[in-house]
Design goal:
The protein is mostly helical. It is built from 5 helices and no strands. α1 packs antiparallel against α4, α2 runs antiparallel to α5 and α4 runs antiparallel to α5. The relative contact order is 0.16. Bound molecules: fe (ii) ion (FE2) (2 copies). One fe (ii) ion binds next to α1 and α2.
Length: about 160
């Protein structure tokens, strides 16, 4: 008979998913930074790269709280999102719309992370893991802020610049 799986198993599974995703994002951000032509956008990617390192450490702490080794599990969703970002970088290289495309790719990443951390935070609370919930919420707030900053950057300059052919 199959093992009876509980919310704790689901939590651990999802933790592995986002751990894999964050490490994939850590590798993608320097490429996105190099591709960006807008200086503020390049800086935003650099800032988020440093934040992603912190976020990976927070996840390692959550694994530790659970008494488990930090281990990722292939996340097909992030593979797809990053692969689409790479297509944009190739297809729009040298074009005025490149930065707008990079922002849209980065926001797809942020929204995926917000979905995952939002769920993990609720589940940690439900499971009575207060310290884990706090760590997950810290990252969730960082992802929200990153998403907002990208919207501001798009509205301020990048979307206008993208229309100049
Ligand atoms: Fe992240
Ligand atoms: Fe993020």
């Amino acid at each position: 008979m199959a093992k009876i799986k509980t919310l704790e198993d689901l939590f651990l599974d999802t933790l592995k998913d986002i751990y894999y995703a964050e490490r994939k994002i850590l590798k993608a951000l320097p490429k996105m930074k190099r591709a960006a032509t807008n200086e503020d956008l390049a800086k935003a990617f650099e800032k988020h790269h440093a934040e992603t390192e912190e976020q990976i450490e927070r996840l390692q702490k959550v694994f530790e709280i659970m008494g488990k080794n930090a281990r990722g599990k292939t996340c097909d969703a992030i593979e797809g999102i990053i692969s689409e970002a790479e297509d944009i970088m190739d297809d729009f290289k040298g074009s005025p719309a490149l930065d707008a495309g990079l922002i849209s790719s980065a926001q797809a990443v942020e929204h995926y992370e917000i979905a995952r951390y939002g769920t993990l935070h609720r589940w940690a609370t439900e499971l009575g893991m207060k310290d884990a919930a706090k760590l997950l919420d810290q990252t969730l707030q960082q992802e929200w802020k990153t998403d907002e900053d990208l919207t501001t950057l798009a509205d301020k300059t990048v979307n206008d610049a993208a229309q100049k052919g």
